[in-house]
Design goal:
Chains A, D: It holds the Pfam family ThiS. Chains A, D: One of its GO terms (molecular function) is nucleotide binding. Chains A, D: Keywords: Nucleotide-binding. Chains A, D: Belongs to the MoaD family. The complex is a heterotetramer, with two copies of chain A and two copies of chain B. By secondary structure, chain A is of the alpha+beta class. The longest helix of chain B is centred in the middle third of the chain and has 19 residues. Chains in contact: A-B, B-C, C-D.
Chain lengths: 80, 141, 141, 80
């Protein structure tokens, strides 16, 4: 399936764009997405953490992705 | 509890007084306010300015979750959380948190927990701009 | 450390913003403010207004002692303590305490200790005025 | 010696005036002053506490009073 991922903060700098499109097998999980990104962008290994938000909520690694999900990369936050 | 909670993500300068005015009630015993400011240096290196960005809808919903939790846990009267995004100069205010409570101890504890949690869970990022470069704060070890 | 400490006993309404502005510095990491307000009831009994009086020179010197101690103990950048005397209506502000610090935890701890200590040692008294009488707060068991 | 005592808060209500004058033996202490006041004004026994300030500082019970001291009665404070 084709997914669109939104990239904030340092993840946008690493990937080089705000909206990143990629393909994953149907039933792919959040963990699969993280693995795919780590392979394509070795710099992700330098981050303190990487969380994924699905539809404006933090997602567990085991959750399954769907084509129309709003998928967002959340590197370590630093508000306040 | 919508009327007890005031969450705002703003692209314009924050007003501490607006947060204070929101939380004042006639049955409040104490109000505690936390005001963040942009510091002029990090580990001795001069900061020129800070750029804040947010995943806006989720930043608002995560701030609201923290506020709801604080109201319940500490029996707050009201809470106001304003966060700014965009470019901030030294001394400007990225965040204001005001809480009111019947008892001041609860107000102190609640306000501190809200800013601690905000810094852990709300999808907002800041980039420090130095004379000779820039860095996303806390992104890498 | 006079320029780090701002102590005022005022017969006119307090300004939270004045306290905030005093404690803001370019090397501050966090500011914590406590704002006291006059509550509309005590133990369920409606309060009409409060009258505050102070032994003024000693009230100022005791507030200054607390501020000096807090600056030293918590390495504060600045501290502002304003207390009002006279007649206050419901919702008005008898006290504002603002502290700034490099680390927000120290600012919370310092601000809470200052208001706790102020309520124990500073010679200021308040009388609650009810519809049917008045009482000096905390004077008798 | 003749002493002048300033009375704040509930102590002014109990004594009935702001400036109260009384005589105590030379070398009288803060404790002696408190005893004298308690005898003359039994209502002082109802207070949670009574401190004495000498010249704008809290005074210990053992401190000796002098004629020109600024002596102030400090009932339980309730600022803030």
């Amino acid at each position: 399936m084709n997914l669109k991922v939104l990239c904030f903060g340092i993840t946008r700098d690493i990937i080089g764009q705000f909206e990143y499109r990629l393909s994953l097998p149907t039933e792919a999980t959040v963990a699969d997405l993280k693995n795919q990104l780590s392979m394509q962008f070795p710099k992700f290994a330098t981050l303190k953490s990487l969380r994924i938000a699905l539809n404006e909520e933090y997602a567990e690694d085991t959750m399954t992705l769907k084509e129309n999900d709003e998928i967002v990369l959340i590197p370590p936050v630093s508000g306040g | 509890m919508p009327s007890m909670i005031d969450i705002q993500l703003l692209h314009t300068p924050l007003s501490e007084q607006a947060c204070l005015d929101f939380v004042k009630t006639d049955d409040t015993g104490g109000i505690v306010v936390f005001v963040g400011t942009v510091r002029n240096q990090t580990k001795g290196k001069a900061v020129v300015r800070l750029d804040f960005e947010a995943y806006e809808p989720m930043a608002i919903s995560e701030m609201r979750k923290i506020a709801v939790q604080a109201v319940e846990q500490f029996s707050l009267k009201k809470i106001s959380v304003h966060h700014r995004v965009g470019t901030l100069a030294i001394g400007e205010v990225p965040v204001v948190i005001a809480v009111s409570s019947a008892h001041r101890k609860a107000a102190f504890d609640a306000c501190e927990l809200v800013i601690d949690t905000l810094k852990e869970t709300v999808p907002i990022w800041k980039k420090e701009i130095f004379e000779d470069g820039e860095v996303w704060v806390s992104a890498t070890p």
